[in-house]
Amino acid sequence: MLTDLATIDSLFYLAATVAVIASLKVVTGSNTVHALLYLVVSLLAVAVCFYLMGAPFAAGLEVIVYAGAILVLFVFAVLMFGLGKDETINAPKSKSVTNMFGAMLLAFALLLELTVIINNAQIQQTLQANVVSSKAVGIMLYGPYLLAVEIASFLLLAGLLAGYHYAKPDVQGSQL
Amino acid sequence: MTTIPLFHVLVLSSLLFAIGFIGVVARKNTLFILMSLEVMLNAVGVAFIGAGSAWQQADGQVMFILILTLAAAEVAVGLALLIRMQKKYRSLDIDLLNEMRG
């Protein structure tokens, strides 16, 4: 049975391979939306790696914040660019279906891997024993790293203000 | 740490970082440069989580959360600037910006 053969190591290497392949496709891609899809797959693969390394909290954050929030921001921005004409004109026309199904295939491999991890009792036991709990992370965040958290909140505020300022529509006659 | 050796985690991290770096240096489309920056930040996160779980300390995950906030702020400002650039030049080619005077 496949689930019995799988070890944490082999699952990690599979997820790492998926992450590297997807990242390569991001960097070499010509179509913006395809590249974004591959970026999502890459982030999900890295999230699976985090889970296998014993950091389920970080894995959840990776999925929610990176793949959920930041990538949606990217998609909105791409929509606002109107799928840039220079993209579609200058990019080589791809005729292969692999462009469409590649990301889906990689994501399906990740899903398969996740079901194997969840179904395998031995892997679950090993992972449970090695988890760095989110409680410890929270204690660290509001203990020794409190100043860093405050600075991060300032950074987010600055990002919010800058995003609002640069992206708002031009008022007639006003300089940037 | 589970059975995954730290060295292999660091290899994965440096591979992802190198891929992202090549993307930042080689691409001309500013949107792709931003995406490659995301890949690079993510690679650093892998290194932090791997090291944190190798020594069973929570510091790695704390650093990862800080990287996450940094990435969110960076993407917000970067995409806003890209929208501005698209309005002004009707293109995202980064070479159009080489006429900037400091």
Structure overview:
The complex is a heterodimer of chains A (176) and B (102). With 176 residues, chain A is an all-alpha fold. Chain A is built from 9 helices and no strands. Chain A folds into 2 domains: 2-131, Four Helix Bundle (Hemerythrin (Met), subunit A), CATH 1.20.120.1200; 133-176. Chain A has helices at residues 2-5, 8-28, 32-52, 56-80, 85-90, 98-119, 121-130, 134-141, 146-167. The relative contact order of chain B is 0.14. Chain B is mainly alpha-helical and 102 residues long. The model of chain B has no long low-confidence stretch (mean pLDDT 89). In chain B, α1 runs antiparallel to α2 and α2 runs antiparallel to α3. Chain B has a single domain (6-92), classed as Orthogonal Bundle (Helix Hairpins). The interface between A and B is large, with 70 and 61 residues.
DSSP strand tally of chain A: 0
Low-confidence parts of chain B lasting 5 or more residues at pLDDT below 50?
none
- The proportion of residues in beta strands of chain A is under 5%
Oligomerization state of this entry?
A: heterodimer
Mean pLDDT rating of chain B? 89
Uncertain residue ranges of chain A: none
Summary keywords:
heterodimer; A: 176 residues; mainly alpha; Four Helix Bundle (Hemerythrin (Met), subunit A); 2 domains; flat; B: 102 residues; Helix Hairpins; 3 helices; 0% strand; elongated
Protein topology:
The complex is a heterodimer of chains A (176) and B (102).
Chain A: H1 2-5, H2 8-28, H3 32-52, H4 56-80, H5 85-90, H6 98-119, H7 121-130, H8 134-141, H9 146-167
Helix pairs in contact in A: 2-3, 2-6, 3-4, 3-6
Chain B: H1 6-26, H2 30-54, H3 59-89
Helix pairs in contact in B: 1-2, 2-3
